[in-house]
UniProtKB/TrEMBL annotation:
Superkingdom classification of source: Bacteria
Protein name per its UniProtKB record: Methyltransferase type 12 domain-containing protein
A Pfam cross-reference name: Methyltransf_12
Methyltransferase type domain span: 85-174
Organism encoding this protein: Mucilaginibacter xinganensis
InterPro entries in the cross-refs: Methyltransf_12, SAM-dependent_MTases_sf
Length: 265
């Protein structure tokens, strides 16, 4: 999974996340990412990625995602609760989540290939294939906590999706979200993976963090906790391993992943 960044001197111009995309289109040359990989639809890409997804040692974004989730589950306690993992993939986080003793854990994903891998690892897992944003086959008030990691930017109609998630939650429910920072994606960053002799990129949509907050505020949520990870000394060794210290020096201090715990009631 690779990410690319905008030059440091442009960041100060992006004071408002809601104006981020327009600003980037205005200031960035069209060929700033000449080697960008053509994106494939989410289901197709993850069905291909499923076979190798669990074999990515030293993947910066996956490691940071695990770190952020562990921090956010301090405030969004899942012990004894019914939990939905939307965008569960192969169940990458399930050993950690199950160690917190939830009452139940249900997985949702758009990729049958990823869910197949989940079932291989957790044969008794409750899992559903997502076919639309409405989750109409799932009754309301079904879950205490919804977790969604590295998934939000794959959803085109994010308002419809978040409103549906709100319906699935009990009146005092929690939503925990992590994902690539929208600044990264808006600047041309891609989620890519190796396949045969090339790379495949997964389709993304840019959703500014403020936009997510605005949608969930209308659904009576508040922000209970918020974390963000930047390029800093703690991740320097990832760049060293890739002989890319020049990239680290150039983008030190730039946000690359975020996480938010929303609480209702």
């Amino acid at each position: 999974m690779h990410v690319f960044f905008i030059p440091k001197q442009l960041r100060a111009q992006f004071k408002s996340q809601t104006n981020l995309i327009a600003s980037l289109k205005k200031y960035l040359p069209k060929n700033i990412f000449p080697s960008a990989v053509k994106e494939r639809p989410v289901v197709e890409a993850y069905d291909i990625w499923a076979d190798s997804y669990d074999h990515q040692p030293g993947n910066l974004m996956l490691d940071l995602d695990q770190l952020l989730l562990s921090q956010l589950l301090v405030s969004a306690d899942v012990n004894g609760k019914d939990v939905a993992d939307i965008g569960c993939g192969t169940g990458r986080h399930w050993p950690f989540i199950l160690n917190q003793d939830p009452a139940s854990l249900t997985g949702f994903d758009v990729s049958p290939g990823m869910l197949h891998k989940l079932k291989e690892k957790f044969p008794a897992a409750k899992a559903h294939t997502i076919t639309n944003n409405r989750f109409s086959e799932i009754p309301g008030d079904s879950y205490d906590v919804i977790l969604s990691t590295l998934t939000i930017a794959h959803i085109e109609n994010i308002e419809e999706a978040l409103q549906s998630w709100s319906r699935l939650l009990k009146p005092t429910g929690d939503i925990v979200i992590t994902d690539f920072h929208p600044n990264v994606l808006a600047s041309g960053g891609q989620r890519t993976f190796k396949h045969h002799n090339g790379h495949i990129a997964v389709r993304n949509f840019v959703h500014p963090v403020d936009a997510l907050k605005k949608i969930l505020l209308k659904c009576n949520f508040v922000v209970a906790a918020e974390v963000e990870k930047r390029v800093d000394e703690s991740v320097k060794h990832y760049y060293q391993q890739q002989n890319a210290l020049h990239v680290y020096d150039k983008f030190k201090g730039f946000p690359i992943i975020y996480g938010i715990h929303f609480r209702r009631g």
